[in-house]
Amino acid sequence: MNKEERLLLLKEVSEVRGISGNEREVSCLIQRYLKDDVDHFEFDNLGSTLAYLPGEQGEPTVLFTAHMDEIGFMVLRVEESGLIRLGNVGGWWGHVIPAHEFVVKTRDGHEYIGVTGAQPPHGMPADQKNKVMELKDMYLDLGVDSRKQIEDMGIRIGDTVTPLQSFRVMNNGTALLGKAWDDRASVAVGIEVIKNLKARGHKCNVVFAGTVQEEVGLRGAGTAAYHVKPDVAFATDVAMSYDLPGAPNSPSRLGAGVALSIMDSSVIAHRGLFDWVEAIAKERKIKYCYDLLTAGGTDSGAIHKQFDGIVNMTVSLPCRYFHSHVSIIDYNDYVAMVELMTEAIARIDNEVVDALKESKH
């Protein structure tokens, strides 16, 4: 893809709506982009989308995943005043919820914009004003006067509430602002990698999985890996960007390149695979950094434990402000991730897989 095509893809994957358990619009986007590139699509029973790109017969199967879901809310209940109480879907920090626009989508497809609100701080006691406000004390304001108006709009308990945020290229020309980079940036990576491999050729049998429900427990990755039964698997995700005031001195930051994950709370990278991928990055002069996170997890946390264990690691993009309504990634880091994933997968064959497995013995 050229830069213009890339930015259009990134805009689309960022702005499409799909909180955990409601990823169908993202799945349709993947199918639209890859329908002329892959052999076929399969779907597990949770809704993960599996795009198959065959290689040579008898060669290993490589799975790489990007979770389609983003964090959001569901309609929990409606007050008599028409204000909507919210139930969180995925991890939200109370500080970032108020005063942002969200979209309620009804079962029949109608969409309504509202803004998150809470009691104003004026007149609050200091101890209350300085605390992180809890979700139970907030609401979504659709600018209506009664519960009946909400019911007449077709809004019901369980309808999805998704952040509303436009994609933007920011002022240095490489910082990209958008919603849901966790993990739609990797969805875009997956689409590009499949297209690159189709044009380039490869020995291994490749399956790109847009997984579901990662933000609520790494659920889709487990069923997708069980469905595919891969020999090698990569999870692609975002990593913390430690380039902010007061942040720890860690190498993962915007502009530092693709982040190779050593471990997080859900997985320790297969060391043989990690070293092999790092060697490719060095050889190809692809800019990279390390990521080590003691909290949080990725699809790898579910993948690596399937069957008798799967050779697996996570490759990520440094990202600011994820798990909020908006976040920032770097265009050049994105390009580095596409290049590294394309190069690594293109090189995998039986000989490589045998050597990776032997590295653990």
Give structural notes.
There is one protein chain. With 361 residues, the protein is of the alpha+beta class. It has two domains: 248 residues, 3-Layer(aba) Sandwich (Aminopeptidase); 92 residues, Peptidase M42, domain 2 (Elongation Factor Tu (Ef-tu), domain 3, Beta Barrel). 30% of the residues lie in helices and 27% in strands. It has ten helices and 17 strands. α1 packs across α5 and α5 crosses α9. The longest helix has 20 residues. 49% of the residues are buried. The model has no long low-confidence stretch (mean pLDDT 96).
Note the topology.
Elements (H helix, E strand, L loop, with lengths): L2 H13 L8 H11 L5 E4 L5 E5 L7 E7 L4 E7 L5 E6 L11 E5 L5 E8 L7 H4 L8 E4 L5 H6 L7 E4 L4 E2 L5 E4 L2 H20 L4 E7 L7 H10 L3 E9 L17 E6 L7 H13 L4 E5 L7 H4 L7 E9 L7 E4 H17 L2 H9 L3
Parallel strand pairs: 3-12, 3-13, 13-16, 14-15
Antiparallel strand pairs: 1-2, 2-12, 4-5, 4-9, 6-7, 6-9, 7-8, 10-11, 11-17, 14-16
